[in-house]
């Protein structure tokens, strides 16, 4: 009977014992591109380097929130993918680490510009223009071609876009409209658009998946996400809005004080190499890669053919502007009746 | 004469060992103990080491040291010192001003406690319980005293402490200072209580939404449950066995998958929607997203619970009363209205409240089908995971949800506690139950048939949807590609390598379930035994405290755990430990209720005999009690295992990249529209669960599966008493 004391005690002691640390090298990856691409990329990396990748996919806004919440003791190493704005905000707040990769010379100008804006705490890994896609089974005549067309009465409850709080895609739209129209006009546009929105999703690419299955007629997303649906056989037509549109520089950052800084740098350099950047196209992701030597997939929407605005990443990636626009969106759009 | 007392010296040895040798901090080395670190840079640990050494000194010099006047104060002082330093000095420095004046090195802060800190705390608790037992606590039964003290300590740490932390988070303003205004602003907002939906197109407050959903869902589920119970208990309906089998399904169904199946059926481009739209030439709508969809999914999920409760009530009604009524000339309808119905009412109330509480706590269905219809559980989730990361708001909402749930529990105990509905007594009850009136029967069948058809449709999709190319577009070519995406592997030069994206989450889920099930069962049964068989000060409060952890909705637990355990002293977020602990304390009341029910049926005389012959509390428990309550052990094991595999509301906050759980992974896939993958994974989970339940059954002993469901219903029904 006396022994059972000790046994009970040691059983309870086992409970809180620190877990045995794995011997092999590993990397905790916060991934903010599509799940499929996240999977392909981490699998390729662990095949090539033998480093075990522990990956979670979350939208970029959520990942930013998580890194911020874990500021005291970071649990992640690399934040790979997702729109540039929250990456810049994290850089500005010192959540991510400054690192100059030897691959810097091979990158496109816009990718280096992103790094300079963020004080080399982040870097561009791909680019893609904003737009929308519609389901051609549901919208057959007089298809929408401009942002203004989405306000049409016939799309009542038939447009989806993500919530800009959780999704970088949707924040890019918010910032684009503000730059395209001016802030007051942009919020008037969103107010009007609201009556056509059936749901603000959490993930940025979810609206186009809903459009592909016919759950909604129009999904506002990055054009490459819409193209991906078409390639997979969905009746989706991609639209580059006639008024012009913004674009994202998908970015990557190393988290300051993460548990595996060495593996993080290995990933960082590898992810900027041409071979690694060509993996996206095999996983239904048709962004324009940032390494000039990497092949741009033929399906990718050509940035040269799209009327692009001069997106001010420094301004709209800053903490103040981003927090202010999101708070205003919550107060004026998020609170509107359904 | 010096008594050499093995048990007490066991605790003392443990204390010295941990204070002198075990690493105090998480991830520390042996030797970096309280003493080692205390002499080094963390001098605030020295008093703890000193109290341990004093205790040891006393033990070696005094006679009958258990009863020595200094033992209890010294042990308590050690524990208090330990707690104080933990909360006074945080990760980045002192949290209480003035500490730095005493200990300059406190500016560097300290990390969370590790093995040493844990074992020291445990040993102090053991010594306290021993000293208390020596003073007559638990009638001097030392094993019971130790169990009570340790369980109370665990409950305080893992149930009450997080809730208190959550409370403070709700009263914290943007600068981190305590203030009442932000709480009042948040809690009185129209966002919570608004009634705009009655008069305009604006949506109502989230609390109103939650309550409306809860009431509707509980009403429908109770109605259906009653229909099912009447058919099974009081008619010769053919499909009784099928009904019973169907009622088990929701228990082992992973969350989200029912919502997904409903979208596949009734979504804008759903199978049924398309057909109906064709027939009537209407434009397919999105009506399923919002209240109707959530309601549908919840009724499907909760009807089995209400069914089990009501079946129990119906079977407990003594048929002689109904027979007497018939003999006295009452028509079946009159008998039903005047005898059966009044006796059923407490059961109906219990079933309603149970479904209401489950609806409040439900997270999986609203998040998939909610659309623009916000309920508290999803709102809490978005407040924490969204880009705003507004913990104060999440905490406020969580407090509202907790208050609602506790109110429902309170109503349940108050309302049902009053009148007597006892009809089963020692006397013969050999009467035959009266058949229900014709129209009741017809109505019941009319309600049940659509339910059964619907359930079958949903589960057909769950079982086969993962193995066709694209259910959404009705491409029904069989494929294993979804399963392969989730569970691909290679056997190469380096041995087996698992590449599928779902392996990590499946393996973690199995580990967590396998670890938490026996622990949950152990602590549950032990608590039941303490409450039923031991007599100690504060027993009622102890019982109430354990039930409280069951009443707290999962999302509230999740948020409170993040708030409480993301920082030292107990810094365990992002580990597997926090998942196991979370399940232990959420599910222990079920094991406890099962144990109490089983113990109530066993006479004390056998245990008394065992103790008369010299066996202590622990030995009696092991050799006499446990073998007699095997069914309760089985229930507790199965319930905690299955819940650990399917729970989502608390877990969703606690998973990390390293330790992801199956349900969290499935949620990600659903959110992203990868329905086929989610469904395929769910089917795999269900198969794994059935296999594991069979394994547990084999390990625990021979009991048939039919018995299990009734026992699971039993604890639920008992809360109503």
3D architecture notes:
By secondary structure, chain A is α/β, with parallel strands linked by helices. Chain A has helices at residues 2-16, 35-49, 60-69, 84-92, 109-117, 168-181, 183-194, 206-212, 223-231, 261-271, 274-277, 279-282, 313-316, 319-334, and strands at residues 26-31, 52-57, 78-80, 96-97, 123-135, 159-162, 197-201, 218-222, 236-239, 247-255, 288-289. The N and C termini of chain A lie far apart (65 Å). Chain B is an all-alpha fold and 721 residues long. Chain B folds into three domains: 2-135, no CATH class; 211-438, MetI-like (MetI-like fold); 503-711, Orthogonal Bundle (MetI-like fold), CATH 1.10.3720. In chain B, 69% of the residues lie in helices and 3% in strands. Chain B contains 33 helices and six strands. A two-stranded antiparallel ribbon of chain B has the order 1-2. In chain B, strands 3-4 form a two-stranded antiparallel sheet. The longest helix of chain B has 31 residues, at 503-533. The chains are: A alpha/beta (338), B mainly alpha (721). Chains A and B meet through helix 1, strand 1, helix 2, strand 2 and helix 3 of A and helix 1, helix 6, helix 7, helix 26 and helix 28 of B.
List keywords for this structure.
heterodimer; A: 338 residues; alpha/beta; 11-stranded mixed beta sheet; 14 helices; 11 strands; 41% helix; 17% strand; B: MetI-like fold; MetI-like fold; 3 domains; two-stranded antiparallel ribbon; 33 helices; 6 strands; globular
Quick structural overview:
Chain A is an alpha/beta fold.
Q: Give the number of helices of chain A.
A: 14
CATH architecture term of the largest domain in chain B: Orthogonal Bundle
Strand content of chain B: under 5%
- Tell me about the largest β-sheet of chain A: 11 strands, mixed
The overall pLDDT of chain B, averaged over residues, is 83
Structural class of chain A: alpha/beta
Number of strands of chain B: 6
């Amino acid at each position: 009977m006396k022994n059972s004391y000790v046994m009970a005690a040691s059983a309870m002691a086992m409970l809180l014992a620190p877990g045995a640390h794995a011997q092999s090298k590993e990397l905790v990856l916060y991934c903010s591109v599509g799940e499929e691409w996240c999977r392909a990329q981490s699998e390729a990396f662990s095949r090539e380097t033998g480093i075990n990748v522990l990956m979670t996919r979350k939208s970029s806004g959520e990942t930013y929130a998580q890194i911020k919440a874990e500021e005291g003791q970071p649990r992640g190493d690399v934040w790979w993918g997702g729109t540039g704005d929250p990456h810049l905000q994290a850089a500005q707040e010192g959540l991510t680490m400054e690192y100059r990769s030897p691959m810097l010379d091979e990158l496109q100008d816009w990718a280096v510009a992103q790094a300079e804006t963020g004080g080399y705490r982040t870097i561009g890994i791909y680019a893609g223009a904003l737009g929308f896609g519609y389901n051609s089974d549901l919208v057959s005549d007089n298809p929408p071609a401009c942002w203004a067309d989405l306000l049409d009465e016939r799309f009542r409850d038939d447009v989806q876009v993500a919530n800009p709080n959780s999704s970088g895609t949707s924040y890019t739209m918010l910032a684009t409209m503000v730059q395209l129209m001016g802030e007051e006009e942009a919020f008037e546009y969103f107010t009007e658009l609201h009556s056509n929105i059936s749901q603000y999703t959490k993930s940025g690419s979810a609206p186009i998946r809903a459009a592909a299955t016919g759950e909604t007629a129009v999904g506002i997303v990055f054009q490459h996400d819409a193209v991906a649906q078409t390639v997979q056989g969905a009746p989706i037509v991609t639209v580059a809005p006639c008024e012009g549109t913004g674009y994202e520089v998908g970015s990557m950052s190393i988290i300051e004080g993460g548990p595996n800084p060495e593996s993080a740098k290995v990933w960082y350099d590898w992810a900027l190499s041409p071979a690694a950047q060509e993996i996206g196209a095999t996983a239904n992701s048709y962004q324009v890669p940032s390494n000039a030597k990497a092949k741009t997939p033929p399906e990718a929407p050509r940035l040269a053919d799209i009327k692009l605005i001069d997106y001010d990443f420094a301004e709209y990636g800053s903490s103040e502007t981003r927090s202010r626009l999101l708070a205003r969106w919550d107060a004026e759009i998020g609170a509107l009746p359904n | 004469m010096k008594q050499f007392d093995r048990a007490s010296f066991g605790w003392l040895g443990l204390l010295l060992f941990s204070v002198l040798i075990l690493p105090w901090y998480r991830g520390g080395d042996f030797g970096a103990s309280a003493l080692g670190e205390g002499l080094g840079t963390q001098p605030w640990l020295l008093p703890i080491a000193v109290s341990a050494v004093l205790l040891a000194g006393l033990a070696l010099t005094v006679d009958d040291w258990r009863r020595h006047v200094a033992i209890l104060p010294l042990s308590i002082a050690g524990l208090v010192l330990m707690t104080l330093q933990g909360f006074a000095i945080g990760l980045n420095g002192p949290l209480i001003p003035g500490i730095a004046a005493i200990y300059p090195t406190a500016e560097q802060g300290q990390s969370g406690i590790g093995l040493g800190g844990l074992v020291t705390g445990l040993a102090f608790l053991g010594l306290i319980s021993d000293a208390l037992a020596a003073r007559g606590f638990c009638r001097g039964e030392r094993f019971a005293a130790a169990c009570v003290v340790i369980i109370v300590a665990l409950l305080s740490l893992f149930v009450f402490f997080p809730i208190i932390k959550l409370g403070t988070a709700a009263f914290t303003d943007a600068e981190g200072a305590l203030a009442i205004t932000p709480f009042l602003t948040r809690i009185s907002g129209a966002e919570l209580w608004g009634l705009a939906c009655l008069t305009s197109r604006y949506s109502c407050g989230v609390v109103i939404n939650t309550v409306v959903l809860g009431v509707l869902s509980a009403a429908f589920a109770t109605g259906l449950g009653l229909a099912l119970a009447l058919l099974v208990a009081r008619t010769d309906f053919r499909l009784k066995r099928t009904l019973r089998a169907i009622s088990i399904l929701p228990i082992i169904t992973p969350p989200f998958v029912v919502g997904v199946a409903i979208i596949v059926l009734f979504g804008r481009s759903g199978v049924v929607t398309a057909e109906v739209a064709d027939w009537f030439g209407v434009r397919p709508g999105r009506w399923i997203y919002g209240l109707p969809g959530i309601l549908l999914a919840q009724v499907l999920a909760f009807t089995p619970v209400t069914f089990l409760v009501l079946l129990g009530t119906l079977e407990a009604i003594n048929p002689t009363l109904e027979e007497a009524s018939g003999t006295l000339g009452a028509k079946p309808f009159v008998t039903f209205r005047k005898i059966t119905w009044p006796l059923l009412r407490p059961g109906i109330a219990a079933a309603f409240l149970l479904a209401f509480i489950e609806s409040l706590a439900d997270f999986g269905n609203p998040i998939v089908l909610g659309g623009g219809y916000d309920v508290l559980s999803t709102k809490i989730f978005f407040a924490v995971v969204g880009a705003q990361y507004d913990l104060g708001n999440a905490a406020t909402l969580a407090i509202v949800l907790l208050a609602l749930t506790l109110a429902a529990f309170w109503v349940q105990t108050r309302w049902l506690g009053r009148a007597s509905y006892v009809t089963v007594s020692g006397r013969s009850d050999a009467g035959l139950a009266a058949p229900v009136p014709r129209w009741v029967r017809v109505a019941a069948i009319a309600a049940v048939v659509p339910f059964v058809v619907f359930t079958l449709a949903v589960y057909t999709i769950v079982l086969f949807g993962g193995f066709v190319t694209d259910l959404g577009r009705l491409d029904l070519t069989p494929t294993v590609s979804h399963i392969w995406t989730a569970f691909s592997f290679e056997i190469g030069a380096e041995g087996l390598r698992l590449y599928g994206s779902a392996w990590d989450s499946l393996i973690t889920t199995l580990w967590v379930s396998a670890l938490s099930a026996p622990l949950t069962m152990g602590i549950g049964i032990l608590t039941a035994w303490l409450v039923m068989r031991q007599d100690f000060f504060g027993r009622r409060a102890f019982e109430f405290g354990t039930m409280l952890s069951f009443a707290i909705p999962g999302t509230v637990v999740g948020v409170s755990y993040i708030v409480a355990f993301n920082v030292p002293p107990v810094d365990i977020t992002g580990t597997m430990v926090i998942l196991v602990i979370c399940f232990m304390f959420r599910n222990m009341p079920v094991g406890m209720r099962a144990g109490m029910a089983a113990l109530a049926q066993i006479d004390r005389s056998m245990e008394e005999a065992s103790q008369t012959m010299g066996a202590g509390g622990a030995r009696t428990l092991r050799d006499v009690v446990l073998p007699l309550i095997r069914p309760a052990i089985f229930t507790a094991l199965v319930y905690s295992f299955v819940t650990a595999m399917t729970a989502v509301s608390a877990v969703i906050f606690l998973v990390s990249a390293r330790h992801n759980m199956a349900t969290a992974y499935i949620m990600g896939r659903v959110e992203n529209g990868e329905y086929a993958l989610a469904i395929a994974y769910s089917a795999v989970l269900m198969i794994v669960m059935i296999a594991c339940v069979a394994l547990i059954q084999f390990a625990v002993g021979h009991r048939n599966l039919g018995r299990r469901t009734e026992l699971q219903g039993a604890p639920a029904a008992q809360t109503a008493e």
